[in-house]
């Protein structure tokens, strides 16, 4: 089969690869219809993820059809996390925290290929008439669903009454912005440094995103909820500056592993700082329903390219030459 393989830092190669090996008693084989390029794929591409070692087929945001195994013929997306099902977190319904988890596109071959094998228990069925582009966005949309739902538990007032700032106009930031709008948030600010993405975000959301390097954005101590979809030293500083007393900072991004933050303000102003990781299976199912129901809009901001042109897509993303917050590859 044809696949896009991460071969060394800053290089992915479209080439022939062996068919996926799988256990027909526990796994399924999926013919991939569409697969998105995630920020974590770019992190690996840059050689910054020690968990993803070349040669490796990356890709975990996918939609396709089961061609072998339980549910043959069913259109599906997948939970890329393959979990044990028996640990304390799995039995609590928090399987994203499973200590025994593995992951397609990380510890086993991923979806940048014509076919991918994964655990049958990780399959998430989608409606037969669901748009393929929308289905391929289930995983990043579920990340936004998970983060916002957790944040709402800590907010003192209902979300529509809150002032919200989203840091980052990539896929997670844009999907979070669209979901916040669908939840009725009235005062919503977005920060994004890439001018192409700011224009794309304006088209998708009608919000004028600002460049935090050139504009101060919201006033200090003004925001009830900050969603940091970048996770860099600079965005953490912006988040702590903008959030008001008693507010919430939801930290999703993983750009920088560590940095100092204003712990004095965090303490004296009773700021709630929450880290969030991916999603649960319930979040994925909720994301499928939301995408199919139009909660995220028409998704016209998503760019589609052939898998055979994947190397060019990675290069364009690396150089900031695409306005699209999400590039989806079609085998």
SSE layout and pairings?
Blueprint: E1 2-8, E2 11-16, E3 27-36, H1 39-45, E4 61-68, E5 75-78, E6 81-82, H2 88-91, E7 102-103, E8 115-119, E9 123-125, H3 132-136, H4 138-154, E10 163-167, H5 171-182, E11 187-191, H6 195-205, E12 223-228, H7 233-242, E13 243-251, H8 263-268, E14 272-275, H9 281-292, E15 303-306, H10 310-318, E16 327-330
Parallel strand pairs: 10-11, 10-12, 12-13, 13-14, 15-16
Antiparallel strand pairs: 1-2, 3-4, 3-8, 3-16, 4-5, 5-9, 6-7
Helix pairs in contact: 4-5, 4-9
CATH superfamily of the largest domain: Medium-chain alcohol dehydrogenases, catalytic domain
The percentage helix is 25-40%
Shape: globular
Distance between the termini: 10 Å
Estimate nothing, just give the exact number of structural domains: 2
For the residues shown, what is the average pLDDT? 96
CATH C-level category of the largest domain: Alpha Beta
Global structural class: alpha/beta
Under the CATH scheme, the architecture of the largest domain is Alpha-Beta Complex
Outline the biggest β-sheet: 7 strands, mixed
Backbone CA Rg: 19 Å
- Element order: H for helix, E for strand: EEEHEEEHEEEHHEHEHEHEHEHEHE
The fraction of residues in strands falls at 25-35%
Low-pLDDT windows of residues: none
Number of helices: 10
In CATH, the topology of the largest domain is named: Quinone Oxidoreductase, Chain A, domain 1
Please report the total strand number as a whole number.
Answer: 16
